[in-house]
């Protein structure tokens, strides 16, 4: 059976039928409708895997259980998939998850027979969540307020931790709360490093941190939605997992799980050359910033590209969180030889691959290290983290602290890079 695939065209708050998807026995077939391809503002849902074609057989999807990668991005996963499976008392198929999940998933794609049911969904209010937080038992985790707000219901937003899309102040927000088993003050930690990222010219969404009955609520504006929060316009989104062409079972250590490979793929996705140059340098800054704040969870689904009507661009940064067990190793490789070790030498040696002048990048790295090292502890205090807990996160900020105290390390790394290049030695680049 073929399932309709819907998308939102630029500037529209109503879905448009783009095509159909059939998946069976691990194989799939995607087919665009001719009427969609003839629309003036139509664009491929994925310019690599789902290029426009009028072939009668459509586009064969031979991997990932027959699902296009950009559709997997829109599918309930982690916490959302668990709640759907629990509600239906069985493990749902991928197409069932797409059909039954609420329309709060990332991006501008819905795969379902009943689009009207999706359009009737309404996001809850922040004030309603706060009421449930205020009613929590003292021993209950903050995240239980989300389950009570949704009546133990579902979300299509990805990730392993509970979250919910809410209306507040005329916008849509993703709310994150402390869950049982989380390291202490996870919402406050994420807020602080996202706040510092913005101060260092990294593009982040609007963020808020609120305290209610001593419980932290971290709010991130939905950058893939705009307009009326009840009937929003939606923007196409492709995770770095999709842009890199990874399979569902791709494991850490795969050569494609690389910032440098992601930069190379961005050269294929982003048509505007001026925008591409801006975004490549932004990607390098994010890579370096993750190293400075100990965000070792920078996996391919925590980066992405977005299409807001004028072509694909690097999306705003999200899910940047300092890890107390950080050992200066990122989830994506940072160096031409495939190393994930985020040393100063590796970070700066990769600059040319991002079109970034190493001297300019070195200046940014030094300034960013000083900013992070001099602010992270006070920012955590200012946002309610007790002094006894702040020291637990010191390892996450160790590189920033070290570079702030010994800035000559950056000069030494630059000297080593220039020496190796004069000798004609170039480290192997990924393919």
Automatic annotation (TrEMBL):
It comes from Polaromonas naphthalenivorans (strain CJ2). It comes from the Bacteria. Keywords: Kinase, Plasmid, Transferase. GO terms for cellular component: cytosol. Belongs to the HipA Ser/Thr kinase family. GO terms for molecular function: protein serine/threonine kinase activity. The keyword Signal does not apply. Signal peptide: none annotated. Residues 155-376 form the HipA-like C-terminal domain. Pfam families: HipA_C (PF07804). This is HipA domain protein.
């Amino acid at each position: 059976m073929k399932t309709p695939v819907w998308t939102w065209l630029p500037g529209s708050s109503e879905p448009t039928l783009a095509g159909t998807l059939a998946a069976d026995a691990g194989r799939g077939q995607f087919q665009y409708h001719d009427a969609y391809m003839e629309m003036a503002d139509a664009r491929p849902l994925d310019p690599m895997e789902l290029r426009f074609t009028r072939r009668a057989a459509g586009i064969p999807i031979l991997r990932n259980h027959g699902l296009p990668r950009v559709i997997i991005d829109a599918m309930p996963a982690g916490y959302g998939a668990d709640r759907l499976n629990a509600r239906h008392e069985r493990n749902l198929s991928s197409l069932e998850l797409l059909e039954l999940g609420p329309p709060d998933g990332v991006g501008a794609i819905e795969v379902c027979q009943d689009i009207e049911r999706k359009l009737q969904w309404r996001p809850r209010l922040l004030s309603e969540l706060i009421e449930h937080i205020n009613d929590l038992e003292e021993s209950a985790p903050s995240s239980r307020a989300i389950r009570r707000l949704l009546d133990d219901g579902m979300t299509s937003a990805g990730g392993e931790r509970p979250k919910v899309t809410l209306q507040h102040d005329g916008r849509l927000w993703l709310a994150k709360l402390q869950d049982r088993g989380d390291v202490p003050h996870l919402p406050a930690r994420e807020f602080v490093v996202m706040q510092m990222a913005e101060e260092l010219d990294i593009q982040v969404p609007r963020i808020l941190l609120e305290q209610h009955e001593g419980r932290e609520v971290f709010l991130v504006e939905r950058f893939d939605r705009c307009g009326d929060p009840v009937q929003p316009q939606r923007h196409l989104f492709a995770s770095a997992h999709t842009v890199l062409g990874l399979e569902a079972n791709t494991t850490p250590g795969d050569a494609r799980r690389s910032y440098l490979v992601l930069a190379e793929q961005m050269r294929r996705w982003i048509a505007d050359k001026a925008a591409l140059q801006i975004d490549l340098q932004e990607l390098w800054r994010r890579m370096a910033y993750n190293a400075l704040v100990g965000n070792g969870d920078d996996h391919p689904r925590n980066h992405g590209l977005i299409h807001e009507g004028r072509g694909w661009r690097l999306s705003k940064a999200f899910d940047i969180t300092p890890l107390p067990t950080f050992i200066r190793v990122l989830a994506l490789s940072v160096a031409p030889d495939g190393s994930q070790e985020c040393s100063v030498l590796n970070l700066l040696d990769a600059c040319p691959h991002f079109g970034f002048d190493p001297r300019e990048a070195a200046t940014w790295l030094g300034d960013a290290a000083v900013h992070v090292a001099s602010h992270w502890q006070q920012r955590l205090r200012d946002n309610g983290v007790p002094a006894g807990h702040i020291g637990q996160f010191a390892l996450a900020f160790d590189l920033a602290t070290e570079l702030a105290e010994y800035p000559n390390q950056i000069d030494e790394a630059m000297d080593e890079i220039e020496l190796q290049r004069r000798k004609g030695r170039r480290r192997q680049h990924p393919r």
